[in-house]
Amino acid sequence: MKIRPSSSDDLSAILKIESLTNQIPWTKQQFLSSEEVGHYSVVLEAVEGVIAFAIYSPIIPESHLLNIAVAPSHQGQGHGRYLLQKVILQNKTLGVQSLTLEVRVSNRSAIAMYESEGFLKDAIRPNYYSGKTREDALLMSLAIK
Ligand SMILES: CC(C)(COP(=O)(O)OP(=O)(O)OC[C@H]1O[C@@H](n2cnc3c(N)ncnc32)[C@H](O)[C@@H]1OP(=O)(O)O)[C@@H](O)C(=O)NCCC(=O)NCCS
C-alpha cells in the first residue's frame, strides 16, 4: 500500500472511484482543470491498483481539502483515515497551519472521521450542494501545529 502523487495515468481509476462515491461527481474536465491550476492530488495504491485519492489546494498558511474518496469495495478498512493522515502530514510539511473542508451534513462517516482526526465544526453553509434536493454544507477546519 503506498501513497504517491497522482499522474495522468490515474485519471480513469480516479474517475471510477469518484462516480461511485460522489452524488454529484466531478467530471473529467474538472479533474483536468484541478491539475492545471496546481492542486495537489495523491492516490493510495494497493496491489490491485488505485483504491483512493485526495485533492487539496494549499495557499500557505491555509489549505483546502477539495476531495477525498475511497473505492466502495475498500471502505471501512482504515484507508480513508490513513490517506487523510498523510494529507495532513503533507500539508504540515508545506507549512500549512489551517486545513479546511466542506462536507454534506448527512455524511456522518466522513464527519466522524474528520472529528476523530481533530477537525472542528466551524459553520453551516445553507443549500451549498445542488442536486435533486439541496443540502447544507458543514464547514470544518483543523489547526495544524
Ligand atoms: C469518508 C471516507 C473517505 C472514509 O474512508 P474509509 O476508508 O471508509 O474510512 P476508514 O475505514 O478509514 O474509517 C475512518 C473513520 O471514518 C468513520 N467511518 C467510516 N465508515 C463509517 C461508517 N460506515 N459509519 C460511521 N462512521 C464511519 C469512523 O469514524 C472511522 O473510524 P473508526 O473505524 O475508528 O470508527 C469514505 O467512506 C468515502 O470515500 N466516502 C465517500 C466519499 C466521501 O464522502 N468523501 C468525503 C467528502 S467531504
Global mean pLDDT: 97
The outline comes out as globular
Order of strands in the sheet with the most strands? 1-2-3-4-5-7-6
Number of structural domains: 1
Biggest β-sheet: count, sense, barrel?
Answer: 7 strands, mixed
CATH superfamily: Gcn5-related N-acetyltransferase (GNAT)
What is the H-and-E element order? EHHEEEHEHEE
Low-confidence stretches: none
Question: Explain this structure to me?
Answer:
31% of the residues lie in helices and 39% in strands. The protein is an alpha+beta fold and 145 residues long. It has a single domain, classed as Gcn5-related N-acetyltransferase (GNAT) (Aminopeptidase, 3-Layer(aba) Sandwich). Strands 1-2-3-4-5-7-6 form a 7-stranded mixed β-sheet. The longest helix has 16 residues, at 79-94. The chain starts with a strand and ends with a strand. Bound molecules: coenzyme A. Coenzyme A binds next to strand 4, helix 3, strand 5 and helix 4.
Give me some keywords for this one.
about 140 residues; 7 strands; alpha+beta; 7-stranded mixed β-sheet; Aminopeptidase
Short structural summary:
With 145 residues, the chain is of the alpha+beta class.
Detail the topology: elements first, then pairings:
Elements: E1 2-5, H1 11-21, H2 28-36, E2 40-46, E3 49-59, E4 62-70, H3 79-94, E5 98-104, H4 108-116, E6 120-129, E7 135-143
The chain binds coenzyme A (COA).
